[in-house]
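So, can you check this one?
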Amino acid sequence: MDFTGGLDKKGGCRVNTESQIGTPGEPVDGGWIPESPAPLRDQADRLLWTEAGPRERTGAGRRPIHVFFVAGIGTWQAGNMFGRAMEDLCARYRTAGIERVSTADLYPYGTMDEVPKEKARSYLYKQVWEVGKDLYKRYDRTRGGQAVHRAVAESCPREEGADLVLIGHSGGGVAAYNAALLLADDGYPLPWVVQVGSPYRPVRRSWRSRVFHLRQAGRIGDWVTWSGWPFLRRFARAVDVPILGGHPFYFSDQPKDGDGRSNLIKVMDQIWMWIGPGDAAEALHPEDGGEPSFGKQIGRG
């Protein structure tokens, strides 16, 4: 699995495989930089599964799992928005005895890192416009969907038969679903899609068991989830999570609530309910024992 690339100004997808931490405490619109960032693992650790992966320890019959975190708009790659989440998810899989797992983060609408300050506002408006168009276009004509599709197809051969999981934040959730449809058209195993704080768009009936939506709890909750096709909110397979700080902070490890639980842990607990192995998910939340976990199917040979 080879993650390479940069930013294609004509709609490519920026792929982050390096350990990049920005200035601690620096506020950003599309993410944050933790006050006390712990060192990330190097690329070999973040991309846990390789061609020479631990097949003998995990069993030759287990399929590899590739998880892609897809960013939305107004995001700084240097902010490492998904770094903690990727580490958390890989640790959960290892604890469950699953090691043929890789993670990567994708930026289909570009990043703010190299945008001059005086042009930041206009660039952000352009990103908003691109996501808005992707909400209403056919999936095979969307900028974000095509960018994610190319990045996944270039790094994951179809013949590998791996399980693909696309986790998109904000507009990245729109791109993730559109890319999943494109990958299915190419003959890939149907990906699983988790949309986190994303605008709503129609989901095919045949895909509704594979597309999940996580949003901020509350009467109003996350304003972004009211955009797009808001009347579809009641039809989505959605779970409300009580996060602090609002839309940019779903994957933040600061602040913590009165019980000492961060947004990151709350969000990853719910995502793990969906993409973790069934026995692990049930052990985490036994009160939901009757709720099916699609993780029971992921990685099974």
Residues 1-12, 14-61, 280-294 have pLDDT under 50 and may be disordered. The first strand starts at residue 14 and ends at 16.
